[in-house]
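ugh ok fine here u go
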Amino acid sequence: MPRQLARWSEKARARQFNSIRARDACSRAALTTISIILILGLATRSWGQQASKSKWVPFVAKFVVTNTIELPHMGNDKIHMSGPFVRDGLGSSYRRQTVNRYDSRLPVQGQVDIGFLYDRPHRKMYILDFARKTVKEEDPPDTPLFAVDPISPEEFEKLHAGDKFLGTMTISGVECDGYAVHSPRQKGKYSSEVWYAPSLNYLAVKTRTRPSPEQEQVTVVEDIHAGEEPDRSYFRIPAGLNNVK
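structure:
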């Protein structure tokens, strides 16, 4: 009898430990969704340049995120997020990510309905939390992704000189160049796989990365309508959101 109670106790502790890990991983998955797509393949670039002859290609699309969380003795949990993703001819963009399916016995935590609005000509970025009804203005990073002008082919090649070229593949109807992006922290290691569309100013159409040992995140831009200008309502902050610092 004591041995049986000991085994039950060990199993209960294991279940409790896995539940804590699951909630923590779910929270990180929601909170870091935006950071994954923003940091892939970026490098420092100076500002204050004159407008170039390059033009931003507008588009209307759908952004899909799948976070898979691997937990011992509990199987895999999956968080599915999606929403509109648009960019206009000036390079301003809007993306919304809403949790629409959660394959887990545990409740999702963190940012469950979040939007990102970037006013590129004025270099202003807003994070819209629809669940908490807040809007927060932040300074955009000093990287090519947030530059006023599109990145040139020469700049792009220089940026990925240390990455591994994976070939060409058609994703969501768009031809993309794939790269295994090197890890800035681990020499000789690759931190992510990214597929860029040259015809869309090197938009990252698909990414695959591991934010943590137990988590894998895949993002895909789907239903791409290249050349289509989005509705201007996407670029207005919705009413009812409170400003926060």
